[in-house]
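User: We ran a pulldown and think these components assemble together. Before we commit to crystallization trials, I'd like a predicted model of the whole complex to look at. Sequences follow.
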Amino acid sequence: MVATKKKAPKETSATKTVSKKSADKSSLLFETAEWDFKKIDSTFQAIEQIAIEEMGLNVYPTQIEVITSEQMLDAYSAIGMPLMYSHWSFGKSFVRDDVMYRKGFTGLAYEIVINSNPCLCYIMEENSMTMQALVMAHAAFGHNHFFKNNHLFKQWSDAGAILDYLQFAKNYIAKCEERYGVDEVEKILDSAHALRDQGVDRFTRPLELDDAQVQKRELERLEYEQSQYNEIWRTLPEVEKAPESERSQLESQLAQKLGLPESNILYFLEKNSPILSHWQCEILRIVRSIAQYFYPQKQTKMMNEGCACFVHYHIMNRLHEKGQISEGTMLEFIDFHSRVVAQPAYDHPHFSGINPYALGFAMMKDIERICENPTDEDREWFPHIAGNNKAIETLCDAWANFRDESFILQYLSPHLMREFRLFNLSDNMKNPYMSIDSIHNETGYRAIRSALAAQYSIANMDLDFQVSHVDLHGDRTLTITHTMNNEIPLEEKEAKMVLAHLHRLWGYDITLKSVDPLTDKVEQEIKG
Amino acid sequence: MYIIDRRLNPKGKSLSNRQRFIKRAKNEIKEAVDEAIKSRKISNMDGSERIRIPAGGLHEPRFMGDPKKGKRDRVLPGNRDFVAGDKIKRPPPQGGGQGGSEASEEGEGEDSFQFTLTRDEFLDIFFDDMELPDFIKTSIKQTTAKEFYRAGYKREGSPSNLNLKLTMRNSLARRLCLRRPTREEIEELEGRITSLRAKKKPSVKDKKKLESLLNELEVKQRRRKIVSYIDPIDVRYSSFDEIERPNTQAVMFCLMDVSGSMSEMHKELAKRFFMLLHLFLKRQYSKVDIVFIRHTHHASEVDEDTFFHSRETGGTIVSTALEVMQQVIQDRYSPEDWNIYAAQASDGDNLNSDNATCQKLLRDVLLPACQFFAYVEIWDVHEAEIFRDDSNTTRLWQTYDELRSSNKNFAIKRITKPGDIFPVLKDLFAKDKIMEDV
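Assistant: Here's a predicted model for the assembly, 966 residues in total across the polymer chains.
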């Protein structure tokens, strides 16, 4: 799910006043701000012609759904998905969004697009016709192309099956609630949600979602569990008797059996928790499957928005060149567009980090510039694309094969760094001050580029956890190792609360160790 | 490409999640609502309420890095005059500075959580542990009334329910099918026979004809005898079924002493008391009528405005109001059709000789007809301080108090300030109270 969330647009009165100037009124797709289904249909076709025939985009079939603002709020609370199981936390975000919206603190998204096949685009009924054209270009072609072609989405999420899977998940959890009680299910979901960031496969490609298979697997799991001897339940003290040398060997064998070390904590619990019954395991699986689905989105947020912004900008301009939209529409579009891709400076009151729309769009436009009008500097930095005059092909290649981190490393140009006036602020909490490491100059370009890329890397976005040890001979204590990044320990209050949830899922004691990978020293130990 | 118009889809997709959330946050919300009630005007009870609750039980913990430790690189846009190697002071952790605004917003979100309860949710929580007295017992019985409704036709029934139209239609159909000769046919036949017989010199042909006509007449008459005009199988009765229909209408009587001894403060308190009761009834019943009866030494039914605002002087005879109430019940609100609630507010003054009449009226007539009768006695704060002891009571109070033990649907309370109203009503309606009484 990707939502375009920006302040509400201003009045659209400009549409009417300027439209007289356009040369040929008859070719216009629409003239007034009012939309209807016929206009949407013909505009969609005009956009499609540009996107497919001129730009060569490759998209899933689109399903456009018109919704009201209330329905948009509903979609927000269900993390943007059209269906979702019930949980109080979604209600919490609903009441919060509701207040924020009604008080006017935030506008609602103009559209929500779902990475599914067919690609679902929700558009709001209160959008003007210009906005409808814009969001169709943005979501139905920009995001849609990105979803279908980017390697991360191809590998890690299953667009064809997600809606079916969500349906399965919703039904399954509803059935569990009927059978085991809402409170019991809620407990498991609470705990699973606390660990959902640790429920993602990072190193192996996840299995495909297929709800028929899922149900089959569930049955198998039941039978398997009943038939299977679980190492954790071993009560015979035979290992205790073994000599030290053999013991460590046995230990490592057992660890191997349990698949340790395991970075996907939810997966480990699903497979090995001694206290969870099969429906609880399946709920863990549902939570981590959905987390997995969103995993690529997190890593490509900037590129994805950049791609969509570039596509809508290109398409709207082409529509204007072809005389299909009026000057007024164009003005309305530019007004909106420039607000979306604005990047306030670090000390501006509106600053809240780097705007992915701004950086993404700027990088795409910059690549286009390098392909078409390179400077000497660009030729030196990007010899493989500078002046190749194949901007769209180059971009399509980038959209398919990179993610935010690698994309920045590959394509962030000195020109853009100067334009954004980027600088790197280094903040070591041990020092009483912060220091400026590098700025947008000859000596700083590469450092800034790496630092910015690192900001988008998984290592920086996600914490690194591993289930490292289970005390099978003692009290079944589960040891989880947190490998610290940049000497950042865990926030202890939060960590303790998460451990309480972990304890609920594991049933026995947990030890959480934060280890500095450089020194191998345990810097922090939390028991739960 | 498909376009689907989802705007007409059922609303409230998030409703169940919202309810789960409210259930989860019940305790916190309840505290916040109680707080809100204190400051809220009772006359304004009917609205939504924005509340702020501590986020304790609603927090969703996640593992995260300690923001106060470690090393971080941050690439920021908009450099103006920094050069590499500059050292700058770290901005204070909360507010302002780089990314500070976002962090502080989140920090706030952790401490408390603000949202708006809808009117219904607010009132639900407000009324949470309030119930009408004996509600469970009596209301189930008494809020349903038996009613007859038409339910087709049947073959048996009492003669008064005979459905003439249908019976006659069945009869006609049967007569047509079985070819019952009509009276006209027979008369015509008889006419022809008479005219034949009247001939002075009947020919052979005529004789034969006469014979066949006589035969025909005989057959027809026999047929007419056998095929009756109305047969038991034609008869249909209208059928009525009895159903239990919830009696969803209630009438609330507001009785108030408006004599000179009632000050504006007294009336204000009474008003709030009435409103709260009314609000409560409105939730229980789809239709709630209100009857305002004011009294001095005589009583009359008035409209709301007059009830609260116009002045009248005179003595105080409470029984007059009770009589008017009795009259109104007789005229317009029969206890079989209406749930009758009454709320009486007074300062406790009454003509001494009248108390016995009041007691009798209440005991014999009004209390049996009412679902619930509440009496509040409004005292000045100063009075209440002086006569804190319950033994210092008004005569009217004593009179009413005697009724209390024998009538479960009768409650009396003393109030002195707006803050008392809610506890009084809560006390009046609290389940526990009833349980004790029972």
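The CA atoms of residues 104 and 201 of chain B lie 131 Å apart. That may be worth checking against your pulldown data before setting up trials.

User: Thanks, that helps.
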